[in-house]
Amino acid sequence: MKKLVSKLVERHGSSLCTLVTVVAPVAVNNCRSRLYQPKEPEGLEDFVLAHKKKM
Questions:
Q1: Cα–Cα distance measured from residue 46 to residue 49, given in angstroms and rounded to the nearest whole number
Q2: DSSP H helical segments within 1-55, as ranges?
């Protein structure tokens, strides 16, 4: 198994590095948006409604 992984990295190492460079930031942003849900402050709904009426 170690030889197989070694050959894979030797052959496709630069492509794998490029792929990881592109995928990592996207994955972090997607995971953060699903897991991080800040608490909604009290009175936010009233605040939004009041400002919508002014516009």
A1: 5
A2: 2-35, 44-54
Residue type, 5: V
Q: Give the predicted TM-score (pTM) of the model.
A: 0.44
- How would you write the pLDDT of the chain (55 residues) with one tens digit per residue? 999 989 988 999 899 999 999 998 888 777 666 666 678 889 888 888 888 876 5
Q: What length does the chain have? A: 55
First to last CA, the chain: 65
How far is Cα 6 from Cα 51, in angstroms, rounded to an integer? 60
Distance of CA 14 to the CA centre of its chain: 23
